[in-house]
Amino acid sequence: MFEIKVYTVANCPYCIALEKFLDGHNIRFRNIDVSQNKEVREEIIHKSGQTGVPVAEINGKVVVGFDRERIIQLLNIKD
User: Fold this and answer.
1) β-bridge mates for residue 58, sequence order
2) Sign of the CA dihedral running 32, 38, 42, 43
3) Which partner from 8, 23, 68, 76 sits 20 to 30 angstroms from 14, CA to CA?
4) Mean pLDDT in each 10-residue stretch from start to end of the chain (79 residues)?
5) Which residues are within 8 A (CB) of 34 and not within 5 positions of it... i.e. 6 or more apart?
6) Domains of the chain in sequence order
């Protein structure tokens, strides 16, 4: 079982693409809008070293951007 958090902001095309990708593979995830919470925004900047979104956290491993290949690898899925 995977624990997946996806840090996003509204209307981000890469965030939407990541969410659709995960939905398309029936992968459950928790969506966290960083624009609504300063503490969460600072936490993900600290974890990723980046200010951009999306950021996915998959079982404690951080993926910056919609890095399809890395996400496939971490989730061990076929695309």
Assistant:
1) 4, 61
2) negative
3) 76
4) 90 97 96 93 92 95 96 91
5) 7, 8, 9, 40, 41, 44, 53
6) 4-75 (3.40.30.10)
Write down the H helix ranges in 1-79.
Answer: 13-24, 38-48, 68-75
CB 29 within 8 A of CB 78: no
Q: What is the pLDDT at residue 1?
A: 66
CA angle 62, 19, 15 (to 5 degrees): 70
Rounded Cα distance, 29 and 74, in Å: 14
Given the structure tokens 């900047």, which residue do they identify? Answer: 45
pLDDT of residue 55: 97
Residue 36's pLDDT is: 86
Please say whether the beta carbons of 58 and 2 come within 8 A.
yes
